[in-house]
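Tip: read the tokens left to right.
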């Protein structure tokens, strides 16, 4: 037995989160750990990663009982973690992040050999079949390349146990398949035990040997991954059939017509111009591979990156755009990276949610109406099913899925005319995804124009009235939802894309 966790208990101020959990991992095994947001799976893995010194229970690695009271102790015992929210240093290069803490010495005392560091980092990436721009600062990478950088760094630390928390949440289909190949190689040829946390139930069956389901801080069931269907796992996750059915049966509704958000000749430096119109009450999905320019286009629309062209909202031009001016005009964006550009992690749920709604809904003559603010936030917490339902809770202490709900709720709170949603359900469980889908459809039903960007092609198909195919920074074509399926959509976004 490579890993044996027995009777693991952990409590926070609000009460117990783990109730005596047992978890085992064999050498060379890919073991899925699944559960709804707040089920305790990330807390269990953070305990293994040495993040909590006050856990109860016992942990054995290769038969040796170990005490893991710090990440350094965990790493020394061969436990490497890839967290859902990245732990990279944005201003350092890819090579520097991969080699962080293992800097090769230079010719003089106290100096680092950067050439040796770059060479070693490139070799470590090559060893797991990943190619990255080693000299590029991490902040200039897309989310997918940042995820791959995290993976290379973890693999370079000679881990015996590798914990991967939602590693494919921001990856396109081709990148996911490549990651699965890397995982299989590590497990089979190097004997690494991999604990794999994911809300994508189909890929659990595809890549994992064993699956353990958690609910409310306890183990519900463990068995061979191949023995479960997706509906089986979904029912175990949520404990009933209602949300599963809602997610499976989500369908797009007809558009209400008249253009509300108009994008005319919008060109980001080095990219061809884009024209797109979205009607009031319409959801237009953008489907494309990583690097196709989807997020950059979205940021250009709200004025977060420089671009030429024209944006009209409800018939009015939006000149000299900035994210704040766009939000004031009724155009808001939910960014793909909630940790870096989306949420203030140290601030409360209340302060995060109210941020974009303060001016239009909660203040008069510059004075914030505290009672209305509290009522709005509490209604959003209930509406979005955020757990725990504590408006004063710091967002940084929430599970990834609940933090994502806060981010989407903040956009909805402003009652915008138009919304851009970039990966709105990344890292959330099947139940929360169904809830968020309903809320996106509700916003459209209330008249908002919605631009949806997602790597989840099923999500694009479930929500969109029309789908814009983006290849090489340009919108190649816009197709009606009717007649599209996952295979045809994947073929459309892959055609003409670089290998």
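Filled-in amino acids:
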């Amino acid at each position: 037995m490579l890993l044996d966790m027995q009777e693991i208990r952990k409590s926070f101020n609000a009460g117990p989160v783990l109730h005596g959990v047992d978890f085992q991992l064999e050498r060379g095994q890919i073991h899925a750990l699944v559960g709804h947001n707040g089920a305790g799976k990330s807390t269990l893995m953070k305990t293994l990663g040495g993040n909590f010194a006050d856990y109860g229970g016992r942990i054995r690695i290769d038969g040796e009982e170990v005490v893991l009271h710090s990440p350094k102790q965990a790493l020394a015992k061969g436990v490497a973690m890839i967290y859902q929210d990245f732990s990279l240093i944005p201003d350092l290069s890819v090579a520097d992040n991969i080699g962080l803490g293992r800097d090769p010495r230079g010719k003089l005392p106290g100096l680092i050999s950067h050439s040796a560091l770059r060479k070693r980092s490139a070799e470590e990436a090559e060893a797991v079949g990943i190619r990255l721009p080693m000299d590029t600062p991490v902040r200039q990478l897309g989310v997918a390349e940042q995820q791959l950088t995290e993976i290379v760094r973890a693999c370079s630390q000679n881990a015996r146990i590798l914990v991967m928390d939602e590693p494919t949440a921001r990856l396109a289909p081709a990148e996911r398949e490549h990651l699965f190949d890397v995982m299989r190689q590590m497990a089979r040829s190097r004997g690494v035990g991999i604990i794999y946390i994911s809300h994508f139930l189909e890929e659990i069956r595809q890549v994992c040997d064993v699956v353990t389901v958690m609910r409310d801080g306890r183990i519900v069931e463990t068995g061979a991954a191949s023995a479960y269907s997706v509906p089986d796992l979904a029912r175990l996750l949520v404990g009933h059939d209602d949300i599963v059915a809602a997610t499976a049966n989500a369908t797009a509704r007809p558009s209400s017509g008249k253009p509300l958000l108009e994008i005319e000749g919008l060109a980001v430096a080095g990219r061809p111009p884009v024209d797109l119109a979205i009607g009031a009450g319409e959801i237009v999905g953008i489907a494309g591979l990583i690097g196709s320019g989807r997020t950059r286009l979205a940021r250009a629309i709200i004025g977060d990156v420089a671009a030429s062209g024209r944006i009209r909202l409800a018939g009015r031009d939006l000149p000299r755009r900035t994210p704040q001016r766009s939000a004031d005009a009724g155009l808001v964006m939910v960014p793909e990276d909630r940790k870096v550009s989306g949420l203030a992690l140290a601030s409360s749920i209340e302060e995060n949610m109210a941020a974009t709604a303060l001016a239009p809904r909660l203040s008069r003559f510059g004075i914030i109406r505290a009672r209305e603010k509290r009522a709005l936030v509490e209604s959003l917490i209930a509406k979005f099913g955020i757990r725990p339902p504590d408006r004063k809770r710091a967002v940084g202490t929430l599970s990834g899925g609940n933090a994502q709900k806060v981010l989407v709720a903040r956009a909805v709170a402003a009652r915008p005319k138009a919304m851009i949603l970039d990966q709105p359900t990344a890292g959330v469980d099947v139940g929360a995804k169904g809830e968020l889908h309903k809320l996106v459809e509700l916003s459209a039903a209330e008249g908002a124009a919605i631009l949806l960007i997602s790597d989840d092609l099923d999500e694009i198909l479930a929500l969109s009235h029309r789908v814009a195919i983006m290849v090489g920074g340009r919108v190649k074509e816009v197709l009606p939802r009717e007649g599209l399926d996952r295979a045809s959509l994947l073929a459309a976004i892959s055609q003409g894309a670089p290998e």
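The first strand starts at residue 3 and ends at 12. The radius of gyration is 23 Å.
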